[in-house]
Amino acid sequence: MQVHITKLRLALAASACVLGGVAIATLLSPPVGSALATAGQIVNVSDPTASYTARVDSTGALKTAGLAAPTLPRLPFNYSTGFYTGGSRRFLGPTTATVALTDLKIANYFGNTGARYVSFFQYSAAAPNTSCTNTRFKYRGSYDVAARDSVHANFETPLVLFPLASGHAWCLMVAVAAPAGDLNYPVAVSVGGYVPTGIFFPPPTYPELLVHPKREPAPPRR
C-alpha cells in the first residue's frame, strides 16, 4: 500500500504540529500574566527542624514566630566633651525625647595627678527646662577613674532616660570630684546610644577640651 502525501497535506500536518507544540507549551508553562500576578503574594517560609514560621512585621523586619530577630536601633548617636572638677554641669539635654545609652567612656587626662570621681544625675522639670533645673531628680551612677586611666562601660541593657514626669524635659548632668589641691585638667566623657522616641540632638562638642585641654584653678577646699 502506498501513501501519497501531497503538498497540501504536508502543510496541514506541519501546522498541526506547530499548534500542538504551542498547546503543550501552554500546558507546561503558566501564562506570562499569571507569573507576574504571583509577585507580591504572601509566601510562608518555615524551618523544617523547628516550629518557626517567618513573617514580616509592621516595620518591614523579617521575623520568626517564637524567635524574633532584633530590630536595629533608631537614630544612633555618639557624643563627647570634657568636664572640669567642681559642680554639676550639663552633659545631655534638655529634651523631652526618650534616649537609650548603650556605652560610656571616661578618660582621666594624664596631666591630672589624682583620681577622679565622676557622677551622673538626671534633672527633670517642666519643658522646655532650658536652665536644667531639677524639680525631679534621679541618681544615675558614679565611676572612680584612677590617675592617667580610663573607664569603659558597655550596657547590655541600655540605660534609658526619659522625662521623670508628664510635660517635663530632662537633662543629664555630670559632677567631677578630685583630691584637694590637685591639678584641674578636664576629664573626657563620651556616650553612645540611640533615640527610641522623640527628637534628640546632642549638644555641640567642644574639641578644644579634648585636644588641647587647659588647666583651670583647682576648686577651693571646704
Task: Give the helix/strand layout.
Elements: H1 7-28, H2 32-37, E1 45-46, E2 53-56, E3 62-64, E4 77-83, E5 88-95, E6 98-108, E7 116-126, E8 136-145, E9 150-161, E10 168-177, E11 187-197, H3 208-211
Antiparallel strand pairs: 1-2, 2-3, 4-11, 5-10, 6-9, 6-11, 7-8, 7-10
Structure write-up:
By secondary structure, the protein is mainly β. Helices cover 14% and strands 40% of the residues. Strands 4-11-6-9 form a four-stranded antiparallel β-sheet, with no helix packed on it. Strand 1 and strand 2 form a beta hairpin. The longest helix is centred in the N-terminal third of the chain and has 22 residues, at 7-28.
Features of the shown structure:
four-stranded antiparallel beta sheet, 3 helices, 2 domains, mainly beta, 222 residues, elongated, Jelly Rolls
Structural class designation:
mainly beta
Strand content: 35-45%
Overall, the morphology is: elongated
How much is the radius of gyration in Å? 34 Å
Low-pLDDT windows of residues: 10-14, 16-29
What's the average pLDDT? 78
Question: Can you give the helix content as a percent range?
Answer: 10-25%
Q: Sheet bearing the most strands, described? A: 4 strands, antiparallel
Widest sheet, order of strands: 4-11-6-9
The CATH topology of the largest domain comes to: Jelly Rolls
Quick structural gist:
With 222 residues, the chain is mainly beta. The protein has helices at 7-28, 32-37, 208-211, and strands spanning 45-46, 53-56, 62-64, 77-83, 88-95, 98-108, 116-126, 136-145, 150-161, 168-177, 187-197. Mean pLDDT is 78; it is low at 10-14 and 16-29.
